[in-house]
Write a structure and sequence with these properties.
Elements: H1 10-21, H2 27-31, E1 35-39, E2 43-51, E3 57-65, E4 75-79, E5 95-97, E6 106-108, E7 111-115, E8 118-122, E9 125-127, H3 154-164, E10 170-173
Antiparallel strand pairs: 1-2, 2-3, 3-4, 5-10, 6-9, 7-8
Length: about 180
């Protein structure tokens, strides 16, 4: 079982987080349609398009947090525009994703579990190794897929989310 994430020094995390968000100014982020919408010292909101089979795009917003960064991946949740609160099931702001041919991603809203005797209640779990929440619930990933400080950055988190929000995995919003 993997260890539970531990919060890091907020000033150091904010500096690393801010530095790594610069990736969003580059060509690859632009090709993926990613755009920084809001940035604060300890969190940022990024627009990521959901692309359907017919090429129709739906905007989604992901809030990344630096509470554990970069010892651990950023926290991540799909959020409602303006408030940046976690998007609820059955709303326009939570995507429907069906992972065909991959087993490295899951989206659970909400997610309730016990981990090492502690109750874990998350409004949302973007379940893959590049989110801090993944390490807050019981998992046993392969060693080569685990977050590695100094090797991985929030770029990995955003790239994976952009991948999952495209056809054939992305199906559209979970509600109106």
């Amino acid at each position: 079982m993997l260890p539970f994430p531990v919060r890091v020094d907020e000033e150091i995390a904010a500096e690393k987080f801010h530095r790594d968000l610069e990736w969003l100014r580059g060509d690859r982020a632009q090709q993926l349609g990613l755009r920084l919408v809001d940035q604060r010292p300890i969190y940022a909101v990024v627009r990521i398009p959901g692309v359907r089979a017919n090429e129709q795009e739906d905007d989604y917003y992901v809030r990344l947090g630096a509470e554990y960064y970069d010892k651990w991946p950023p926290t991540a949740a799909f959020v409602t525009p303006g408030t940046w609160d976690p998007a609820s099931p059955g709303t326009r702001w939570l995507p429907t994703v069906q992972c065909q041919g991959i087993n490295w991603f899951g989206l659970h809203a909400p997610y309730n579990s016990n981990y090492d005797g502690k109750s874990v209640n998350l409004p949302q779990l973007l379940c893959f190794t590049f989110t801090a929440e993944y390490y807050m619930v019981p998992h046993s990933p392969s060693e080569d897929s685990v977050w590695q400080q100094g090797r991985h950055t929030l770029t990995a988190t955003l790239s994976r989310l952009a991948e999952i929000l495209r056809h054939p995995h992305y199906r559209g919003p979970s509600g109106q």
